[in-house]
Amino acid sequence: MATYEEIYGKRVKEFDSDPTLDSSYEGQVWYDKSSGTLKSVVAISAWVSSTPLPIATNQSGGAGVNTASLIFGGTSPANNAEDATYEYNGSGYTNSGDLNTSRTGISGAGTQTAALGAGGYLFPGGSNHTETYNGTSWTAATAMPSANSYCSCGTQTAAIYVVSGTTLEYSSPSWTAGGGLNTPRSEASMAGTQTANIFFGGGPQTSASSASEEYDGTSFTNSATMNTARGIQIGGSGVQTSALAYGGAGPSEPGISTATESWNGTSWSTEGSLGTKASQMQKGGSTSADSTSGIAAGGFTPSRSSKTEEYAVSINTITAAAWANGGNMNTARRAMVGGAGTSTAGMVAGGYTTTNSNATEEYDGSAWANGGNLPVALYYITVAGTQTAGLAVGGGDPVVAEGIEYDGSSWTDIGNAPVSVKIAGRAGTQTAALLAGGNNTSNNSTAEAFTYDGSSFSNITDMPAVKGSGHVSGGSQTASVQATGYTTGSPGYTDTTVEWDGSSWSSGGTYLSPGQSQMCSNPSGYNQLAGGGYLASTSAITNITLGYNGTSWFTQPSISTARQQGSGFGTQTDGVFCAGTTGTATNATEEFTGETTAVTASTLTTS
């Protein structure tokens, strides 16, 4: 039998263990002496779950690629046409400018910062509205010649839309008729440009098609059929010679599919399946994508869905961000603010059980242990710092100004802060802390802010916006984020964010779920993780989790247990949320791990 060297002209290297892998190892083969296996780095194709959409929706429009996509319109949870627009950055969603006209069944084309949305339904009746998106807002454009729901591809200024057998080409600012399909059908998908695309799947709702046709800017030509017939809004992305088809359905709900196929310009090949069967996903995409990437957002599963999945062909194994249960606290409680330390060395104190609490608990990454008690039982006392060098300020009721330090075993009084306050936002460490906002009497919101340097408190410039009950806070003394919360009187719950840079306050990104009593991690800078709380829009406790990147807030996987008035500590990618109330006080702990990517080696079989 020929040796590897005789076949390939190279010898197989031997290592005592797997080397540190990067992309340069793709296709290379080596022998791992520690495990006695032959290994290589090879690309794999798979769908990976990602952060869900802020709402459950189907029949929305889409544009862009995996790491920079746009989702707009669709059908809301209340079965109404949507006008919302969401931008996805490969990790989570942010809100953007609403469509001028709410529509479901809208189709998109272009990129995240230069998109086109046209057609759809208004409930009742079809729509011929056309709008363009510039990365911030939508602007009305020339209306389509006819009102209906279409499938589409192309760019913002050169797109093609097809419904049944009719083709419409948009060359800004005008619409013209294009070549007709050989087999008229709807609920299909497309990939490519206005003059070089592939049209696949579809059919009336009583059947499903496996046909595909290619368009050259003038006419359609039949091409190879897909392996699985699918209609009712099959998903698609890519270009004419390298496309991806996924999901879709037959004539009834049991026909909803997870099937994924790639197109190489000649034939269709079966790829890794969607994690969740879906049809009626977003319609439209970018011409810069190919068969190695795709995104499936929302859809019908067979209920309206908020799920998001990303497809990639990569040498990397991607582990999606997720929450996991941690050890339960010794004492269930609520009415807590802040938290100190890291996910493996954290601390919380105070709160409310059936009375004010003086309990301190420390977390080691798996279990809680009781620490030294606070000198006085207080709820809504603000906690910052680390497990062995903590700081606590204020609390109520009545509202106090007391400051105390924790050394890992006991608390020591350090004198009063400049103002009596409860539910104040916090950032920083025991020797370099910042506190801002909260309530300076039982129910009066404040904008006051002050610092602590390890020996004394000092007033600083007030926040430009009053932020009372339970606003999100975190960061360091010189890079702090303070967001949302309740303001006494108008406007009530706010979606504003302010940032402190050590000398002045400035405006930050709009908070996506305004309310109060949010939990937040305590990293060293502007990047934050916030979750839970009371959601003003629904008047209910929520499990929504958000991240902040110093510019905008974006969605993250939701915590398992909706709660408010809890504590949080750790970082944006390695955080802990605990305690709070679900209606009754809870001792539940949840741990967050951000998305990770690693090059992995595959073991080769030998004979």
Overview of the structural elements:
With about 600 residues, the chain is mostly beta strands. The protein folds into 3 domains: about 5-40, no CATH class; about 45-320, Kelch-type beta propeller (Neuraminidase); about 325-590, 6 Propeller (Neuraminidase), CATH 2.120.10.80. About 0% of the residues lie in helices and about 40% in strands. It is built from 1 helix and 57 strands. The strands form 15 sheets. The chain has a 5-stranded mixed sheet, with no helix packed on it. The longest helix is centred in the first third of the chain and has 5 residues, at about 5-10. The protein is globular, with a radius of gyration of 28 Å. The model has no long low-confidence stretch (mean pLDDT about 90).
> For the largest beta sheet, what order do the strands appear in spatially?
29-34-35-36-37
pLDDT averaged residue by residue: 89
Q: Biggest sheet, in brief?
A: 5 strands, mixed
C-alpha geometry: globular
CATH superfamily (homologous) name of the largest domain: Kelch-type beta propeller
Low-confidence stretches: none
- The top level CATH class name of the largest domain: Mainly Beta
Rg calc? 28 Å
Which structural class do you get from the secondary structure elements? mainly beta
Number of strands: 57
Total of domains: 3
CATH architecture of the largest domain: 6 Propeller
- Percent range for β-strand residues: 35-45%
Q: Kindly, what is the distance between the CA atoms of the first and last residues, rounded to a whole number of angstroms?
A: 11 Å
Bin the helical content: under 10%
**CATH fold field value of the largest domain:** Neuraminidase
Count of runs of 4 or more consecutive helical residues: 1
